[in-house]
Amino acid sequence: MTDITDAKKAIAQLRQEIERHNHLYYVEARPELSDFDFDRLLEQLLSLERQFPELVTPDSPSQRVGGTITREFPSVLHREPMLSLSNTYSLLEVEEFYNRVRKLLLLEGVAEQKMVAELKFDGVAVSLLFRDGLLVRGATRGDGRQGDDITANLKTIATIPLRLEDRLVGDLQGEEREVEVRGEVFMRKDDFECLNESRPEEDRFANPRNATAGTLKLQDSAEVARRRMCFVAYYLKGLKDESIAHFSRLELLSQFGFYTGDHYRLCHEVQDINAFIEAWAAKRWQLPYETDGVVLKLNDVRFWEKLGATAKSPRWAIAYKYPAQQARTVLNNVLFQVGRLGTITPVAELEPVLLAGSTVSRSTLHNFDEIERLGVMIHDRVIIEKSGEVIPKVVRIIPEERPADAKPVLPPMHCPSCQSLLVRPENEVSYYCPNEEECPAQIKGRVLHFASRNAMDIQTLGDALVEQLVARKLVKDPGDLYFLKEPQLEKLERMGQKSALNILRALANSREKSYEQLLYALGIRHVGRATARELSQACPSIDVLQQASEEQLATVPDIGPVVARSIIDYFAKPSWPQLLEKLRTAGLPLCASEPREQVNSNFEGLSVLFTGGLDRYDRQRASELVLERGGRVVGSVSKKTGMVVAGLDPGSKLQKALKLGVRVVSEDEFEAML
Ligand code: IVH
């Protein structure tokens, strides 16, 4: 391509395509392209940009910071290939595996065969290299032979020690005393939910594994740190004494300071293995993280090499995967929900059914493409599935059981809330309600978002209350909240003087929130908490922000062309000047406050663990406070834990801390230290 106008066009198209696939992959978890094809697209873009360097803009996905482009990390070669495991869903095959291993051991004259059963963590595999006790490199699996060097990101994970204790390093082998630890990076369910809550609805991750994969590829390790990922170690190589069994290696890892999972067991016979698998089939739903199976490894490491490996997986281990939990039920109806951005989401109303420990009566159908793909009709018998922590989904219908009264699911013509004629933009899978300003459902969505925990945190403003405020036209935008009067509130259903005063007090308190939180609370499409933080630093007042050009915005870290455009569109809305006026009159934080006084370093070098609920801080805020003061936040107790903050209803970690003699403090003492 020699013509610059053609190149410009092609580049614009490629950028749009790449952004779309990024979104499909990271956010919606339904990639349409293989990694290979995606890389090809990216390669085309890079090649055009090399030919026409004058067309490179800071907002090109090729330049994206905090982005998703793996080639921004240097590649590294693994010491030995990072293999995967062979998977099975059958207990019979587990037994066959056991017998295969036994044959070999018997041939070698070994009668005793112990297996280690571990939980299979659903995350992202990484390899850590320690040289002379120091963490020198952390890498993703990549294609098994070479992966991405993501050391800086991995160093933010509290359960990865940066140095192995000297006393233990003595055991390590080789001149350089190199040791490799492999394991899984994962996100706890509560941290995952917290992260998603802080992201705009349209950018949420589908499950903790996707969130982990997306986070590990960020370029901004400060943001990675905020997302609180965990690491579980399950493989150690490089000991001087190579005969140390796998179970003991796990114990060693734990002495090094790694988290190794709390539940692995040594199994002496195949019955023990079956019992372990069976026990966790149900109990795993109660774990704070996702597991999708059990991994079995031969304990006696001396035979690992003899057993060898196929091209893909070692023969000394196998993964048993739990079948996804399914249930059959009836789809009674399909409702249409209107989001705060006007998106119409079809929701299946199901005959309530028990699935993986909870009753399910609703499930999202995402959009009309999904309804078509499933071929689902109202009154159909359907199979729903829950895999991991994901919200249950309809996976298929049972066509042979379709009742005579089955009715097709018709796309709605009108908004279920305001009756406006819906639109479906070209190339989009969703319908939208175009009545942005007046649609009660959209107003309600915006007000609820404004009041949500990570935004202005006005806890007394619940769904039912906002519904009434909007229906009675007392509130048309979040700004109106601040002009509500006590008598107006008292007249509402289920509201007395006391609750009315509580609400007014909560609203008044919310004026103390930060400018950054306010930016997030506005609900600008694609502006989550992290983006709001960047924006608040780059544009320290709303007046500066609303004047910024698209080009200026695109130079802010983490802000790509799509986000920049969306910010411009937001401030161009006809209703914005009115909202701004109300927010100003109400005294809300419309500019960044003076840099806060230097915080102390009372937590310098201290690893802190929270257990139980705190009264005055949510977990995320409490963790940030510790980080700001030089400390680290950890997820499990060991002798090296510096301090445990015990809140209401502390878990078993408190017991463990007391047993190990770790210092335990109350919320009050914690606050005093802050
Ligand atoms: S052992 C050569 N142990 O599951 C040793 N893997 O489906 C290979 N995984 O690639 C891994 N929990 O990413 C092992 N306790 C565990 C695991 C585990 C999760 C992952 C790992 C592996 C994949 C195989």
Please provide a brief summary of the model:
This protein has 674 residues and is of the alpha+beta class. Helices cover 36% and strands 19% of the residues.
Structural overview:
With 674 residues, the chain is an alpha+beta fold. The protein folds into 5 domains: 4-64, Helix Hairpins (Orthogonal Bundle), CATH 1.10.287; 87-321, DNA ligase/mRNA capping enzyme (D-amino Acid Aminotransferase, Chain A, domain 1), CATH 3.30.470.30; 326-408, Beta Barrel (OB fold (Dihydrolipoamide Acetyltransferase, E2P)); 440-585, 5' to 3' exonuclease, C-terminal subdomain (DNA polymerase, domain 1), CATH 1.10.150.20; 607-673, Rossmann fold, CATH 3.40.50.10190. The longest helix has 24 residues, at 4-27. Strands 12, 13, 14, 16, 17 and 19 form a 6-stranded antiparallel beta sheet that branches. The chain has a 5-stranded mixed beta sheet with strand order 2-11-10-3-9, covered by helices on one side. Residues 64-71 have low confidence and may be disordered. The N and C termini lie far apart (61 Å). The structure holds 2-(butylsulfanyl)adenosine. Residues 83-85, 87, 118, 120-121, 125, 184, 234-235, 295, 314, 317, 319 line the site of 2-(butylsulfanyl)adenosine (IVH).
